[in-house]
């Protein structure tokens, strides 16, 4: 089974940003040190599908082992990959089974599943084949684990992620996240159809092309329905809490391309870098932006991480290595190939900025995962103070593995600690200066807020002055 390193941002975006502003050959020579095997951090606010009712296994006994009818993807590789059993019947047909240890608890659980399997085969309103029940069993096995970041992805879901990671697609340019049972907009691309038609951050989806938003299995399925061929139209109904009313928009889809780094000088000696997302290539763009700001006289920097839902760990480490002297960046603890691991990642002594450069990181409730690692690490090193709102609170990482039919499973397989030893999962980062945006600009795109009205930005500038 192939490992694939990409961000599954189940804020699931209707877009992902393309690293196309700065070219890799412009970067200064910096080492990249990563042993993450394709780990990445994600900001997932997505409900897990419940399909446990179709977890069915037929049991047979042989010596000290239990057998169950099932299929295993031939591409799967692990220490238990040889658990498939093929038994040839007298008529020449084969029977497939999975092998389990013969323990009282296994026997009890399998007997229960056998009962459910038989019930569904006999009494479900539609006839179900064994393969249908086996597929449902596999999906349910993944989706019923405790971690909300472990789940099954259909081939369509995987394709949507690949499209988003390419940084260019056809849609409306709105980032969508799931909050509770609702789907709402967490960010909007500048000059996109979503912005031009008047959609706003925090708008809640009511329907897409007449289909009630509650009918979508998860946020990615909603995003897939919003996307479509360039030039085609999609009808979206939203609820806007600030007006306490619904609005309907007919929006023409367009090609969406977006940069992951935006930078400028705020004052003669304070630079500004907005990190939209930690996707592929953002590290190169970041270093080039930082070099350009220093050439313009920047002594200190404001990092804007608002609405940044996360991304690749190795990109974050690359950026931190550029900013920090030699020392610890992150420790991740988890399991891989059946074995526990604990790895500490560190920066080297080489820095791309002066040792006395200071930072202010602006965050909000949508700043998650890799954003929290970036800001939390800088604060632990006494290099940055945090401004804004408490961040989302995502302190675990995942890997994604493809299956032969084009589907995939995302697995939570490590949690990470900041240099101080703290883990942000479920807690978030509490800002040093808690500052809210004014009500009249709270739902605007960050880049469209006038700097004088951006109370969080103004506080960050005040700190660095």
How does this structure look, described?
This protein has helices spanning 104-123, 130-143, 155-166, 193-196, 219-226, 282-295, 313-323, 370-380, 455-464, and strands spanning 3-4, 40-41, 59-62, 65-68, 84-88, 94-101, 151-153, 168-171, 174-179, 182-188, 204-208, 211-212, 233-240, 245-252, 254-257, 261-265, 270-275, 300-304, 311-312, 327-336, 339-347, 359-363, 384-388, 396-402, 408-417, 433-434. Mean pLDDT is 81; it is low at 1-81. The strands form six sheets. Strands 1, 2, 7, 19, 20, 21, 24 and 25 form an eight-stranded antiparallel beta sheet that branches. A six-stranded mixed beta sheet has the order 16-17-18-22-23-26, sandwiched between helices. The protein folds into three domains: 22-30 and 259-464, 2-enoyl-CoA Hydratase, Chain A, domain 1, CATH 3.90.226; 52-143, no CATH class; 168-257, Roll (Pdz3 Domain). With 465 residues, it is an alpha+beta fold. The protein starts with a strand and ends with a helix.
Q: Terminal Cα separation, in Å?
A: 52 Å
List unreliable stretches of 5+ residues.
1-81
Oligomer: single chain
For the record, the CATH architecture of the largest domain stands as Alpha-Beta Complex
Number of helices: 9
Total discrete domains: 3
Mean pLDDT: 81
Strand fraction equals 25-35%
From the spread of the alpha carbons, the general shape counts as globular
**If you compute it from the alpha carbons, what radius of gyration comes out, rounded to the nearest whole angstrom?**
24 Å
- Using the coordinates above, name the CATH class of the largest domain: Alpha Beta
Q: What structural class do you assign from the helix and strand content?
A: alpha+beta
Largest sheet: 8 strands, antiparallel
Helix content: 10-25%
CATH topology of the largest domain: 2-enoyl-CoA Hydratase, Chain A, domain 1
């Amino acid at each position: 089974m192939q490992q694939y390193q990409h961000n599954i941002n189940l804020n699931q975006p209707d877009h992902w940003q393309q690293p196309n502003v700065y070219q890799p050959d412009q970067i200064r020579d910096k080492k990249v040190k990563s042993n993450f095997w394709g780990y990445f951090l994600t900001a997932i606010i997505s409900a897990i599908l419940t399909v446990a009712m179709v977890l069915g296994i037929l049991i047979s006994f042989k010596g000290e082992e239990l057998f169950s009818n099932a299929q295993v993807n031939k591409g799967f590789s692990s220490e238990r990959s040889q658990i498939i059993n093929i038994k040839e019947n007298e008529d020449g047909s084969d029977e497939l089974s999975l092998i389990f240890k013969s323990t009282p608890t296994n026997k009890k659980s399998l007997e229960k599943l056998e009962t459910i399997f038989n019930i569904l085969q006999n009494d479900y309103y539609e006839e179900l084949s064994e393969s249908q029940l086996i597929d449902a069993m596999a999906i349910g096995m993944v989706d019923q684990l405790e971690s909300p970041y472990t789940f099954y992805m259909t081939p369509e879901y995987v394709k949507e992620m690949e499209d988003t990671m390419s940084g260019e697609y056809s849609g409306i340019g709105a980032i969508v996240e799931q909050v509770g049972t609702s789907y709402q907009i967490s960010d909007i691309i500048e000059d996109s159809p979503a912005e031009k038609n008047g959609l706003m951050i925090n708008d809640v989806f009511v329907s897409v092309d007449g289909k009630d938003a509650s009918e979508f299995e998860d946020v990615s399925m909603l995003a897939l329905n919003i996307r479509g061929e360039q030039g085609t139209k999609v009808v979206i109904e939203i609820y806007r809490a600030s007006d306490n009313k619904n609005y309907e928009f007919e929006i023409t889809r367009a090609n969406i391309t977006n940069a992951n780094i935006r930078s400028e000088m705020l004052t003669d000696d304070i630079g500004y870098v907005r990190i939209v997302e930690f996707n592929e290539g953002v590290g190169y763009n970041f270093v080039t932006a930082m070099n350009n700001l220093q050439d313009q006289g920047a002594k200190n920097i404001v990092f804007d991480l608002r609405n940044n839902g996360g991304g690749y760990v190795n990109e974050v480490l690359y950026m931190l290595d550029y900013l920090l002297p030699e020392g610890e960046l992150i420790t991740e603890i988890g399991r891989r190939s059946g074995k526990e691991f604990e790895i500490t990642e560190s920066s080297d002594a080489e820095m791309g900025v002066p040792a006395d450069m200071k930072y202010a990181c602006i965050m909000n409730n949508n700043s998650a995962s890799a954003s929290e690692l970036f800001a939390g690490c800088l604060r632990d090193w006494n290099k940055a103070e945090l401004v804004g709102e408490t961040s989302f609170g995502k302190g675990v990482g995942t890997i994604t593995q493809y299956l032969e039919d084009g589907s995939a499973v995302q697995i939570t397989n490590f949690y990470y600690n900041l240099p101080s030893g703290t883990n942000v999962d479920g807690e978030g980062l509490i800002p040093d200066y808690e500052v809210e945006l004014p009500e009249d600009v709270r739902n605007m795109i960050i880049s469209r807020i006038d700097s004088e009205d951006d109370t969080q930005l103004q506080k960050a500038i005040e700190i660095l002055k």
